[in-house]
Amino acid sequence: MAKQELKIGEISKPRFEFRSFGQNFVEAAKKMAELSAPVPEKVKERHSDEIYILSRTNDINNTKIRDGKMDIKTYVQTVDGLEQWNPLMKGEFPISKTVLVNDVFPAFKVDFPEFTEEEYTFDEFIEMIDAHDDLQAVKVHKHRFGYMVNDTICEFANVLVNGAKIVSINSESTETEDILKTMENTGLQGVENINYLQAIKRIIGMINKPLAN
To answer: What's the Cα-to-Cα distance from 62 to each of 40, 43, 70, 189, 197, rounded to whole Å?
Structure first.
């Protein structure tokens, strides 16, 4: 089967990912920049403000709000230490009760609140999250630098999680061999693979475990 061509900044599915979080990935980021093929100007440097919805009972669905849209990815499997994630849904606000009941709250894996309206604005949805004992909305700002190494989409990012600064580095592709090669080329072998859900939970105290460095 022919390898699926990845284009940075575009959606393809499903992808395998290596990602880690800590305080210092300077050398790996330098190597990533040196090895990178040319990338589109729009993805060389980007800023985004997002809200992740963390659930004490969910580690398999990555749920966030970006650009006013609900975005959910779901964990599929782990192969060679790399996690495969697949887009599950995208929804806009105001969001309907039907979508909340059928898609959003099942992804959180928590008890449902009482839905008294047929649709909810962004502010009403956040109020619902804040009132739930097992859910927490977390503000995340990302300053991302995009690269393309060994046909994998790569990124180094300065990340603020409720104002706490950390850094992240990643490589993703439909091909696990290309990611493993990129990890070797950039000195990331042996670094713990940590997804956004796990990293944010560690920072806010839902998980009692440090980051990679």
So the answer is: 27, 22, 11, 25, 6
pLDDT digits (tens, 9 = 90+) for 32-62: 999 999 999 999 999 999 999 999 999 999 9
- Tokens representing 152? 């994998």
The whole-angstrom separation of Cα 162 and Cα 137 is 10
Distance (Å, rounded) from C-alpha 29 to C-alpha 34?
9
What sections of the chain are H helices per DSSP? Answer: 26-35, 41-44, 97-99, 105-108, 122-131, 176-185, 196-204
Q: What would the two tokens of residue 197 be?
A: 């859900």
Closest CA to 103 of 76, 75, 131, 73: 73
Confirm if 40 and 213 have CB atoms less than 8 A apart. Answer: no
- Give per-residue pLDDT as tens, 61-95: 999 999 999 999 999 999 999 999 999 999 999 99
**What domains are defined for the chain?**
20-204 (2.40.320)
Measured CA to CA, the distance from residue 99 to residue 63 in angstroms comes to 14
